[in-house]
Amino acid sequence: MKLNIAGCRSYIGREKIKNMQELSERLGLSIPVILLLEQGKEIGYDAVKDIFNSLGEAFVREIIDFGEETMDGFQSKYVLVGDKLY
């Protein structure tokens, strides 16, 4: 799984995020991690789970490129209780 740069930029524009620090706080990821993701590094399942739990499934679908994985396949690795993955 990788960061969907176009989806992320769309989110940044829509939410009027002003800088990398604000984006870092929203995603719950450090700035160095975000910079690595921008370069095409893969994002781990637990990081995606944390983003899912804080910002929701629709947001994850927008900013994560699942590659050969699917949302159902991703969710099957966890237990979904309400709208949270555990």
Overall structural class, as computed from helix and strand content, comes to mainly alpha
Number of strands: 4
Strand arrangement within the widest β-sheet reads 1-2
Compute the separation of the termini in Å: 19 Å
Largest sheet: 2 strands, antiparallel
The portion of residues forming beta strands comes to 5-15%
Compute the number of structural domains: 1
* Sequence of secondary-structure elements: EHHHHHEHEE
Task: Report the average pLDDT across residues.
Answer: 94
Regions with little confidence, pLDDT below 50 for 5+ residues:
none
Radius of gyration from the alpha-carbon trace, in angstroms:
12 Å
Helix content: 55-70%
The dominant shape is globular
**SS field, number of helical segments:** 6
What report would you give on this structure?
With 86 residues, this protein is mainly alpha-helical. The protein has one domain. The chain has six helices and four strands. The strands form two sheets. A two-stranded antiparallel sheet has the order 1-2. β3 and β4 form a beta hairpin. The mean pLDDT is 94.
In short:
By secondary structure, the chain is mainly alpha-helical. The protein is built from six helices and four strands, in the order βαααααβαββ.
What is the secondary structure topology, with strand pairs?
Blueprint: E1 2-3, H1 5-15, H2 20-27, H3 31-38, H4 45-55, H5 57-63, E2 64-65, H6 71-75, E3 80-81, E4 84-85
Helix pairs in contact: 4-5
